[in-house]
Model the fold of this input.
Amino acid sequence: MDNKRIIIAIDGHSSCGKSTFAKLIAARLGYIFIDTGAMYRAVTLYALEHGAITSGIVDDEAVAVMLGDIHIDFRFNPERGASDIYVNGDLVEGKIRTIEVSNCVSAVSSIAAVREKLVAMQQEMGRKRGVVMDGRDIGTVVFPEAELKIYMTADPMVRAERRYKELTEKGDRVTLEEIYENVVSRDKADTTRKISPLRKADDAIVLDNSHMTLEEQMEWFSEQYRRVING
Ligand code: DC
Done:
């Protein structure tokens, strides 16, 4: 057991298993896990439900104005072994993962005011260290001083198949084709947006998990973690 509590930043493409990986790491280390994508999704859901998105078109100014009315918090759910996300006291964990939210979240997350508010919240949540945070800009913007930065990726079709399985198992009626299109278009939007685009931090280590089991990924992680702690 070591006493050195660090910040672990995990960035990467959508649907490559960042949250599953990050959650497991956090559980093993006794760290807090923060899924920052859930925060962008929660703002998107709120915007959808409050008229700031019509026919897929996001009204940036309306979303910026709404930010003051959106209170996000995480509450630990022992059944899941992870935290659920709440907006203004309502549990929205299930509602933020729909294809409707996925289709609008890139546009919402490219609004400067949205990023400013959520980045400040994330920095506050990691202040005491001992966190595993996953997202797109954690190692580059939120915690550039993180001791361990991981950049995750996987083949786009492998990612689409994983998300398709996840959604159809939940009973969502989606096609593999539409999921694949969403994965590819989000990659493009996330890496080309003006503010805080997804990019590998210079000191991040790459994990391509296209052909790796979760167990193999955890073994890989243990080595990296040991290197940082002993280094
Ligand atoms: O990780 P996810 O797929 O649930 O994230 C949803 C979207 O939120 C993703 O398309 C980009 C955005 N996002 C972001 O811009 N910055 C983050 N730190 C996390 C997510």
Remarks:
- The mean pLDDT is 95.
- Strands lie at 7-12, 32-35, 53-54, 57-58, 72-77, 82-87, 90-91, 131-135, 148-153, 205-208.
